[in-house]
């Protein structure tokens, strides 16, 4: 009998300790750290680290631990293996990152079964968010930039005919489909469609662009994953003299990632892209973001749209930790906490659509030009506010299921 | 010019430029494999290193593109001799597997090291003005840089052909490729010959790496990404054969370009189809020893 009050006191102490106890949230980060696309991983990883460095105090007494794994090539196989290990061995509370759509597609059934939220900071195939109720996307859908680009290209850029050339994997097909839908709705005509091989092959685009040059459309809508292929495409475009031949280069912002723009040279000048981020974007959060980035990583290092997405990804995760007071073990509750999340980030105002768990953000038409200081920059020509994923709005193909 | 002829000229021109890049970069690999039977998977890493030397020289030291190319290939040629003497020589008598493990390991180490210093972002180089834009060759205009590549490739082929076919040293190399033991027994120092060809081959690879920057942009993963192509050229051409490597580079360069132009949906199918076909009919490649 003398034991009972003691036991009661002990239970109470444990319970009280529980409320005051600082939780450690384990986040499995899956990004490409090796191979031809390693720089994409670094662009996002740097943003994750920077956000945590500057905002760790916001979630005190709770803390986060990042467990980083290599996403591997854009095929999904390695990503699935490492993410499954993160869930089963490391018992992470949630997964973040994912550069490539095949990774997210391969993992969707795994996170559904494990009830672990997957917070996507890049992979952009439109219908990914439909694959699992545990997916939240902070980046974009291919339709975000590509669909409005269609009407903009026809009405403002002066493209009556266009060729489309794309990397032959899900996001490439998606981007081209979205552009075509918007472009033909506005009255334009796609005269040539060229798949340019897989994202893992060598970045030589000469034969494809030579064919575009010979077909002579008003514009070339290009899609490549924003790694080494972006530079390769721009090299071929400049080398073969397509701009001189009167063929304008348009596309999503993947064509001119901010961190590669300076190395693209004169060939890039005049390129018009639709996108949600550029280092030159004029808003106070972006100015602060760029200043902190340069302070942490040097004057020659630039963030890009992926870095901005990763920054917002960590921001949303931190806000969920605050909202749930560190109790991140119930995946469904974490996803619930992120629905309707909104904030001002480097991209401007962004929101998670509670119905689709996908991002809502502004899209800007931007043109590459030579700035007075000699560097290349992007200027905003036109802005569309609060763009949703039009693929899910129009219920096109797999976006309708 | 009629449309069809115009397209054919485009394909031929772009294919030739691509073939020259493949030949310059892969020829060293072919000769060293033919001479020593040594599998050097770090060949692409020498090319990549040469490319980055060009990047540093042009951008950080303001040296012109052409002198930078020369400095890069001489430097890599000399550095490769150190590798050959310190590391490769130990494994000449070893199995293929051990050679592959050593050299692919070197390639991965090179990628990691160059990523550490240069970062993974594709690099570009400033070109001299006379290499920019396009050039009028009488009947139509062509991109200058590619025309330069074809010209340079032709000159190099002529020099290599002359050395191989007309000089004493070329005769020794051919003899050693044909029958190493016989060559040694008539007093040819095959080891020294090998060091020489290894250095020249690596230097040419470095030149290829430097030339590739303007075509594709240069990243550290160049070392492995393009290795498959070089190995295909070597296998299709036949080990140790200058003629074979040239023919393979031309066939692969032109058919790949034409295939991608006419049937983009097929992607890389053409390269692999040619490789499979040639090796089925002639397992040793165009000019390989039976």
How would you sum up this structure in a few lines?
The complex is a heterodimer of chains A (401) and B (290). Chain A has 401 residues and is of the alpha/beta class.
What are the defining features of this structure?
heterodimer; A: 401 residues; alpha/beta; Rossmann fold; 9-stranded mixed sheet; 5-stranded parallel sheet; 14 strands; 21% strand; B: 290 residues; mainly alpha; ABC transporter involved in vitamin B12 uptake, BtuC; 12 helices; 73% helix; globular
Overview of the structural elements:
The complex is a heterodimer of chains A (401) and B (290). Chain A is of the alpha/beta class and 401 residues long. Chain A has helices at 3-20, 38-55, 77-88, 101-114, 143-157, 170-186, 206-215, 228-239, 258-264, 284-297, 305-323, 331-338, 390-394; strands spanning 24-31, 63-70, 94-97, 118-120, 135-137, 161-166, 189-195, 219-223, 248-252, 272-275, 342-345, 348-352, 359-370, 376-387. Chain A has 2 domains: 7-142 and 283-361, Rossmann fold (3-Layer(aba) Sandwich), CATH 3.40.50; 143-280 and 363-400, Response regulator (Rossmann fold), CATH 3.40.50. Chain A has 13 helices and 14 strands. Chain B has 290 residues and is mostly helical. In chain B, strands 1-2 form a two-stranded antiparallel sheet. In chain B, strand 1 (134-136) and strand 2 (141-143) form a beta hairpin. In chain B, helix 1 (3-36) packs parallel to helix 5 and helix 10 (227-237) packs across helix 11 (242-262). Chain B is globular, with a radius of gyration of 19 Å.
